[in-house]
Amino acid sequence: MKITTDNGGKTIICECGEIIDGCTFRDYTKTSANPSTRTIGHTKCGHIFNFIDEKMPRKFSSKIELKSLATRFASKNNMDSSAIGKFLVEVDKLKSSGRLSDRDILVMAFRKIK
Q1: 27 falls within a domain
Q2: Residue 109: inside a domain, yes or no?
Q3: Does a structural domain hold residue 32?
Q4: Is residue 18 within 8 Å of residue 106, measured between CB atoms?
Q5: How far is residue 23 CA from its own chain's centroid?
Q6: Alpha carbon 8 to chain centroid distance?
Q7: What are the pLDDT digits (tens) for 8-58?
Q8: Residue 58 CA to chain centroid, in angstroms?
Q9: How many angstroms separate the Cα of 45 from the Cα of each of 14, 64, 105?
């Protein structure tokens, strides 16, 4: 599994917990800048991103919320059970080490085990 970048070099993790890796569709959405702004959506769950108004929010969850997101992320990315264990340990380490956003923690942990 590879991680690609989009939106100015930033990895996008959908609200459903999956890394967006080419599974997008083009769409137009109403934003504060324009009534018809070009954007992308996630093919698998249908979430449409509003990069103008949302500006890729940095979410900082509690440890319990992040564990739930990490577990969903691991299952959506078809990790085997040994990889999931290593991934969750890395997520815990990164969460405890500082003020990284959820996205940064998940991506760094994912890269570390792959």
Answers
A1: no
A2: yes
A3: no
A4: no
A5: 13
A6: 15
A7: 556 677 777 777 778 889 998 888 888 888 888 888 888 888 877 776 556
A8: 10
A9: 9, 23, 22
How far apart CA 30 and CA 98 sit, in angstroms, is 36
40: in domain: no
**Could you tell me the residue range of the domain that residue 105 belongs to?**
63-113
* Cα–Cα distance for residue pair 66/71, rounded to 1 Å: 8
The structure tokens listed for 15 are 């609200």
48-57 contacts: CB < 8 A, separation 24 or more? Answer: 49/12, 51/7, 56/7, 56/10, 56/12
**pLDDT tens-digit series, residues 57-95:** 567 778 888 888 888 888 888 889 899 999 999 999 999
The residue type at 61: S
Total domain count, the chain: 1
Helices assigned H by DSSP within the chain = 63-76, 81-97, 102-113
pTM: 0.61
